[in-house]
Amino acid sequence: MATYVLGISCFYHDAAAALAKDGEIIAAALEERFTRIKHDFSFPRNAIRFCLERAGISARQLDYIVFYDKPFVKFERILFTAMATFPRGIRPFLQAMPLWLKQKLWVRNIIRKEVEADCPILFTEHHESHAASAFYCSPFERAAILTVDGVGEWATATMAVGEKNRVEIRKEIRFPNSLGLFYSAITYYLGFRVNDGEYKVMGLAPYGKPRYLEHMRELLSLHPDGSFSVNLRYFTYHYGLKMVGRKFERLFGQKRREPESPITAFHKDVAASAQAWLEEVLMAMVRKTFEETKQPYLCMAGGVALNCVANGRILREGPFRDLFVQPASSDAGGAVGAALFVFHHLLGRKNRTPLSHVFLGSVFPPSETEAFLKKTGVNYEKLEEEILIRRTADALAEQKIIGWFQGAAEFGPRALGNRSILADPRRAEMKDIINARVKHREAFRPFAPSVLEERAPEYFDLDRPSPYMLLVARVKKPEEIPAVTHVDGTARVQTVNLNQNPRYYRLLKAFEERTGCPVLLNTSFNVRGEPIVNSPEDAYRCYRQTDLDILVIDSFWIEDKSVQLPAVEKKTKRRMEEELWLS
């Protein structure tokens, strides 16, 4: 009989569930896609229900349920930190206690109540989950593993080794020393939201110069053994409700940027300096990991592993032969890692199944989509695949912007051709048009290219596939694809092959035949502040409220914005986002 293991992550940010069948992840989803609350941290009851339904099983058929970290160990850190920073840390500690005492300490009871399963409930360590999510999904039989994030229980970074079906953590760096929290503090100082705007800092960095590198070294010191330490004089995240205080502002000579206020050359230079120092620290950690583990391959996970600029540099300049980064490297991926750690490491099962794609989320049968369109009165055409592909390629070549909704939703933060907004990358102004009129976001934000895998080396300085949009590479022909070429001449590349996503591959092929260009601009199908669309109804709402020209849902072609759907209340959840040490 098959062994089913359900992994759960929640109560911090990006709550998710993942289901493994005999060591293979067969379903995974973020709770935000169902609740429409971005970075939803609540118990992922909708994601769990989806995973069970996609597998065609009931909760009674689960063999194990695994939570992605150990709440009591995390509570120990919070208690010790509050004592160590008394009296400054007492106020946020007291504010956080009701949630901990009511919810976070009773995870086992909550799971029993919500899932209604009678199987064992297990707990992995936070960074064990991250390490497992990277290694067991990788194609490597043996590899070094590096996990870097804000904070788990105590660890903020770990060095580990994976071999066959086992993961062994060998070293760790502990809170309050955190590379992730250092970068989040810069995110906060630059006026962006913590746990949401770090990628904005990465995107802003190429517009500036690293004029503040010495300031960064003052904030975070790199040691000869590859470890680092944070200068706590400048930070408040270890005792307060904010990331930084007045000493931090005095160091830079300017107050924190107010959200939505103008971005100046100073802010761009701070972003450039933080990104440069993050890369230097990561490179030192990577070299030390290679030196100590003597492994030829590297796996990475944790929120910092989503810094695709740093990943590109690790691949180009690092000592490892190859690199695998978990596509859902943030806490959402912890659900995947927790499930796989139990199956392989604890149960000793050896039948590993490397990750072949991330289309693990919600699927809507064409009959259900058509019923929705008919019920709401939306005009549509149902097209054969060949006609659909050709018409879409023609529309893109004619500068139309298309909402592209196909098959199963992606698991993780990137849209990879199933919940995407697509456009022609050959028109430079397309970047500004989509940022302003479709995504409603900052003008400096870049867009990623999707490229036929076999044609990628012609357009990018990239010698291997990059299916998950986790590597940044130099653009070889920036004049041909200006809309996806960042200001520094690079791009975050997604390579597409026929096996991973047949319909998207055929669309790229048709666009190449129509224009000679095997590249499309690909960005996530959502607007600023909202999760990526999950259902056909989500897709139509987003299409109607933006300047998208055409909506394609599976085989249905839609150019009708006349239908007003019933209003949906905007859902938010109050959360002290900067209170990272208490989470």
Could you explain how this protein is built, in words?
- The chain folds into three domains: 4-137 and 329-346, 2-Layer Sandwich (Nucleotidyltransferase, domain 5), CATH 3.30.420.40; 179-325, 2-Layer Sandwich (Nucleotidyltransferase, domain 5); 366-558, DHBP synthase, CATH 3.90.870.
- The chain is 36% helix and 18% strand.
- It has 19 helices and 21 strands.
- Strands 13-21-20-14-15-19-16-18-17 form a nine-stranded mixed β-sheet, with helices on both faces.
- The longest helix has 29 residues, at 265-293.
- It is globular and about 65 Å long.
- The two termini are 38 Å apart.
- Residues 574-579 have low confidence and may be disordered.
CATH architecture of the largest domain: Alpha-Beta Complex
Q: What is the strand tally?
A: 21
> How do the strands of the widest beta sheet line up side by side?
13-21-20-14-15-19-16-18-17
At the fourth level of CATH, the homologous superfamily of the largest domain is: Carbamoyltransferase, C-terminal domain
Count of helical stretches: 19
Largest sheet: number of strands, sense, barrel closure: 9 strands, mixed
Instruction: Determine Rg (CA atoms, Å).
Output: 23 Å
The percent range for strand residues is: 15-25%
Characterize the overall form. Answer: globular
Mean pLDDT figure: 95
Query: What is the CATH class of the largest domain?
Result: Alpha Beta
Unreliable sequence segments: 574-579
